[in-house]
Amino acid sequence: MRSAGLILLLLLGAPVYAASLESLVSPGPMSAAHADQEEQCGACHALFSKSTQTTLCLDCHEAIAGDMARQEGFHGTGGRLEGTECRSCHSEHQGRDADIVGLVPEAFDHALTGFALTGGHADASCQDCHQSGEPFREASADCASCHQSDDPHLGNLGSDCAGCHDTGDWSQHSFDHQRSTDFALTGGHGGLACVACHAGQVYEQTPTECAACHALDDVHRGERGSDCAACHNESDWTDARFDHEGETGFRLQGAHADLSCAACHLDAMSLAEPPTECAGCHSTDDVHLGQRGDQCDACHDQSRWQTEFDHAAETGFALTGRHGELACDDCHRGNLDDPLPTECDGCHQQDDPHAGGLVSCRDCHDTRDWTGSLRFDHEFTAFPLLGMHRFAACEQCHLNLVFHETAAGCNDCHAQDDVHDGSLGTDCEGCHSPAGWERWQFDHGRQTDFALTGAHADLACAGCHAPGARDALDISTTCASCHASDDVHNGSFGGQCDRCHTADSFSELRGTF
Q1: Interior angle at CA 214, CA 208 and CA 217, nearest 5
Q2: For the segment 240-261, what is each residue's pLDDT rounded down to a tens digit?
Q3: Are strands 436-440 and 432-433 parallel, antiparallel or unpaired?
Q4: What are residue 379's phi and psi, to 5 degrees?
Q5: 3-state helix, strand, coil in the chain (%, to 5)
Q6: Rounded Cα gap, residues 82 and 75, in angstroms
Q7: CA-to-CA distance for 509 and 513, rounded, in angstroms?
Q8: Is 66 exposed, middle or buried (0-12, 13-18, 19+ CB in 10 A)?
Q9: 153 φ/ψ angles, rounded to the nearest 5 degrees
């Protein structure tokens, strides 16, 4: 009986004894996180069964058990820790200050959590996302949880930021506007910021009609309807593809092709049928003041306003030289049909420096240059230009350009150059040549019947012809008229000295006495 009672006592007290025994064999104090279970070994250990220890851990750490079941987070991602005992990484009974987690932040591969640190996240510190005192696993992987204050959409596009943005550059996005909204951003729309169309970050029910956004830009003020795309494209608002000829019957060519619509369609483009006659638009530009009618295209074309009028064929008066540069109204002061003179003096009478003294301007001038292309030939006048006269300018002789009044006598131009002071008359060409004033020749014997012989040949003209004397040419040819003071005979032998004396020497006598 005593043996049976002892056995029963041992069996009934076995759990108590076992617990006390485990306490006695504890390897050391537990960490601060598990300090409450230090006296309850069964919370973490099953008696005589190490295989159930991980199950007991997960029973307590339900969140981690859930991660493993869902294969999420550090412990569950990819099922990589399935079958692994918790104690293989987390050791206990090493004291209250022991670090049973064993995390080394610098060496931790964050990709093992299912959230790889890429782009801007790679430079973030742990504290930027993991709040102090909170378990790491409780940090949300949702973008909005960290970036809500950075959200320019104010939450209107939800919290799936990664649907458009990536971690590389927050300002860049990969939103496919065409696929997501059926409205492709092409042309000028492609470079717009989102808020240009989505004011106030309102994205739902944004209109797609042109007029909804461009009403203020509509130069037609709505009078052309809301189908802007019928004429305009998204690349350039001003580049219209309206078929003007097909729609209106008026082809835009020449200078008209470069005009803006508003140049002809005034009043906000509402004028449906502007005039098609030239005068309808160009009456204020009409230099003819309506005197040529409204058929401007009879002379003008649409490429340039300058006329293509064939003046020679239509009037018989070709516009050559400087005439070709004139504007029509330089000659046509009144009606273009009024007859105009075709002779030079009909237009240039007031410009005539010859005061009408010449017969025809065309004899000397042409239309190229009034003064620079003279073709007058002086040889066909009564005074051909010989010698130095050929190099004289016209105005040296023709002082007033009334050419036919100019005197032709030498003395008329050279009176002040006459060293004889008029004493030898005005027949300068009798001695002088137009080749040069100093080039002269006078045959005294032939022209005066008094040959200069002997000592007379060496005399200067003034030796006999007193300068300035009125009778300088009309002098006696008798010897005594010049040599009376040299006559040793005192006139007793008369005035014909050459009967005895020679012209070679006064002392030389003729013959023998």
Answers
A1: 165
A2: 778 888 888 888 888 888 888 7
A3: antiparallel
A4: -65, -20
A5: 45, 0, 55
A6: 9
A7: 9
A8: middle
A9: -90, 0
Provide the CA 227 distance to its chain's centre, in angstroms: 35
Taking Cα atoms as reference points, which of 355, 356, 351, 374 lies closest to residue 364?
Answer: 374
| Amino acid, single-letter form, for residue 340 | L
Convert 378-400 to b/e letters by CB count within 10 Å (16 or more is b). Answer: eeeeeeeeeeeeeeeeeeebbee
Q: Which residue has the tokens 């971690």?
A: 167
Distances (CA, A) of 254 to 96, 282, 283: 96, 15, 19
Return d(Cα 378, Cα 364) in angstroms, integer: 11
CA atoms of 191 and 75, how far apart (whole Å): 46
126 torsion bin: left (phi>0), alpha (psi -120 to 50), beta (else): alpha
| Per-residue pLDDT at 10 exceeds 60 | no
H or E element at residue 438: strand 436-440
- What is the DSSP secondary-structure string of 255-286? GGGGS-HHHHSHHHHT-SS---SHHHHHGGG-
The C-alpha R_g of the chain, in whole angstroms, comes to 65
Joined tokens for residue 482:
């010049």
Backbone angles phi, psi at 56, to 5 degrees: -65, -35
Q: Report the alpha-carbon distance of residue 252 to residue 257 in Å, rounded.
A: 5
Q: Report whether pLDDT(13) > 50.
A: no
Neighbours of 401 (CB within 10 A): 15
Contact 260, 269 (CB under 8 A): no
CA-CA distances (angstroms) from residue 505 to 209, 262, 460?
A: 133, 113, 17
Alpha carbons 236 and 217: distance in angstroms, whole number? 13
From the list 200, 154, 193, the residue with the least C-alpha distance to 171 is 193
Indicate yes or no: pTM above 0.70.
no
- What digits encode the pLDDT tens for the residues 128-178? 888 888 888 888 888 888 888 888 788 778 778 887 888 888 777 778 888
Distance CA 266, CA 329 (A): 31
**Mean per-residue pLDDT for 340-363?**
81
Cβ contact 423:473 at 8 Å: yes
